[in-house]
Amino acid sequence: MPIAANTLWTEQLPRSLAREPLRQPLEVDVAIIGAGFTGLWTAYFLKRQAPHLRIAVFEQQTVGFGASGRNGGWLLGCLLGEEQFLAGVGPAQKAALRALLKGIPDRVFEVLQREGIECGFRKGGVLTCAARYPEQHQHLCEELRRLHAAGHSEADYRYLTASELSEQVRMAGAYGAIYSPHCATVQPAQLVSGLAAAVERLGVSVYEYSRVEQWRSGQLTVAGHSVQAGWVVPCVEGHAADCPPLGRYQLAVQSLQIATEPMAAAQWDEIGLADGQAAHECSRQVTYFHRTRDDRLVFGARGSYRFGGRLRENFQLSADELSYRRRLLLELFPQLTGVPISHGWGGNLGMTRHFRPYMLCDTSSGFASAGGYGGEGVGASFLAGQTLADLILQRDTLCTHAPWVTRQQNLSKTLRRWEPEPLRWLGYNAVIAAFTVEDNVLANPTSAPWRRRLVSAVAGGVSALVSPEFKAG
Ligand SMILES: Cc1cc2nc3c(=O)[nH]c(=O)nc-3n(C[C@H](O)[C@H](O)[C@H](O)COP(=O)(O)OP(=O)(O)OC[C@H]3O[C@@H](n4cnc5c(N)ncnc54)[C@H](O)[C@@H]3O)c2cc1C
């Protein structure tokens, strides 16, 4: 059976006419670059609080063309690098920020209800599973201890025995899991297109096929036309290479996923995931999966990095890319052998050098931007939109005082530059090679204990050399 290269998500959207490109010079209060979650949430929160603002969103392709319309649909109530961010924060602020992050899925749900956006939202929580080899269980227990020591409660992160886990998802040879309720799953293309329609109803202008060719303080060139703007707000995440100088600080990494054909109820009885739970196994293969509203299993895993940080445009997955994901899927769910894979696709996501997101704003030059969510941007972009809106409107809120906020335009003072090539490429590939060897050895039950310890030590050492927070897409 041929495998569709377009994303499952956009294929499920009703056909609609493209929005008009920009056809003449324009003057606005806020010019937002990029119609993904970050740009649209920023427009949404700005317009709700300050309806008089003239806001335009410029998208080089169509709404949700970037990662927002292609991702795995996990809407997480946390932030990549949260613990490092909160390390130096006082107890009261820390508790308030933790509650802010955990509350993201519920606050998104409130907006969905208010705006009538249907995107298959289900808050089934997230399962971090030890399922492919025993070392994962040890890792899981350490992770749980770390989370509780950092102040998270049993209600936030709870251990599930193998038999408790099997009430939620049935995987071959599972050892146990951590369950957290702070996650929902959504159909991301429906969310981003519903959000675009909502901001338009509020009076925001969204231009498609309107590439921002140049920008500086107060001034942009969009599809050959001049735009004057009080604020310029690039929200381009994994597409930063298309929006200099952001590309030096935010590198494109690809993540890839596959989807099965819809499966029958009897097949799902063998798997579980009945409540829309997000799930992954805690190896370094960065897997993620959930059951869609139309009863498919969507399964993603680590992608790739292209020399020079080049964007990937063709997401027709190669035979190797498909079989790697299918192999991992079948290791977890051998009961799915023979189930056809109908779709394979991917997207570019943005990674900063310190592997943490940023939200920054400079009132003197009228510049604000957010990104670098590193594969955890569906919920984080909601927070970013709210935060950028508060910063632009000069409101004093919990969001604007968060440790991930910087109040200046100078990117080099907030973000570290990536190393030049070929260092990045060599570093990435060394880490991936170490992770692959480790995974092959650990997944083989006959590997000798000394080999298992050695490959894990090497993989841990190599990734720590790149960064303690390294995550491979
Ligand atoms: C395969 C995959 C799976 C993922 N899974 C998850 C997940 O399950 N959960 C999670 O939390 N996160 C996930 N992510 C990450 C998440 O999707 C992103 O972090 C998030 O969508 C980023 O949103 P954004 O609006 O900042 O960027 P994007 O959605 O990438 O939007 C940026 C937009 O800017 C436009 N643009 C760029 N340059 C210009 C220009 N010069 N002029 C005009 N427009 C421009 C682009 O065309 C693009 O549409 C995943 C990402 C991928 C790729």
From TrEMBL:
GO CC annotation: cytoplasm
Has keyword Oxidoreductase?
yes
Query: Where does the FAD dependent oxidoreductase domain lie?
Result: 29-391
Q: Which GO terms describe its molecular function?
A: oxidoreductase activity
Q: SUPFAM superfamilies from the entry?
A: FAD/NAD(P)-binding domain (SSF51905)
Establish whether keyword Oxidoreductase is in the entry: yes
Q: Which UniProt keywords apply?
A: Oxidoreductase
Report any Pfam family annotated for this entry.
Answer: DAO
Domain of life from the UniProt record = Bacteria
The molecule here is called FAD dependent oxidoreductase domain-containing protein
Q: Which organism is it from?
A: Pseudomonas turukhanskensis
What high-level taxonomic lineage is stated for the organism? Bacteria, Pseudomonadati, Pseudomonadota, Gammaproteobacteria, Pseudomonadales
